Each structure stands twice: as structure tokens, then as C-alpha cells.
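Good morning C.,

I know you're traveling, so I'll keep this short. The sequence:
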Amino acid sequence: QVQLVESGGGLVQPGGSLSLSCVFVGSAFRVYHMGWIRQPPGKQRELVASITPDGTINYADSVKGRFNISRDNTKNTMSLQMNSLKPEDTAVYYCNANLTTPRRNYWGQGTQVTVSS
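The C-alpha cells, ready to paste straight into the viewer:
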């Protein structure tokens, strides 16, 4: 069984920065596809960024050039550095771990990010 524990959300002014962290509690972190998904108020969840076991990264167009995803397979952690934050980045941010074979999909509890002056 896998547990994902997020931290680092909060309130920040537009233009500010925040860093989110996700700790993977379990085994075989290095084989999981990891990602950050967010859910803005009143909207559906959307992919923010993902990183494969070999380090291939994908970003949503809305965050390219501002956000940076990374993983540390020695510490079982994934991070999201968010810079130049905008009010539209306000959302609950979820950590996700996904495996195709065998099929596994895990979610963290979510952490609130609010960008407001």
C-alpha cells in the first residue's frame, strides 16, 4: 500500500513563489509515474506537471516557464517549485502516483494554494 503526504501550500501574493512537496510512503517509488494535479474552485481537476521514472517531464501550457517539477528517487519525494504565481493558480493541489503494470493509482490528501493580494 502507498500513502502520499503533501505539504507546502498556503497563501501567497501574485508574483510570489511556493514550493510543494510530496512524500511517497511505500515501496518502489522509482517505478511510478508521478504528477501534480490541481482542482481550481468550481472546476475539474487538471494536470499541472508530471515526471516519469526516467525523468521525462511534461507541463501544462499554463504553467510552462513558471513551475518546475522534480523527483528524488533516493528520498522518495517529488517537488513542485511554483514561481510567478497568478490568481488563476489558486487551487487544491494533489500529488498522484501512477503505475501501469500492475495497475495502481494513488492520491494525496491535497494542499490548498491561494494566490491573492
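Safe travels,
E.
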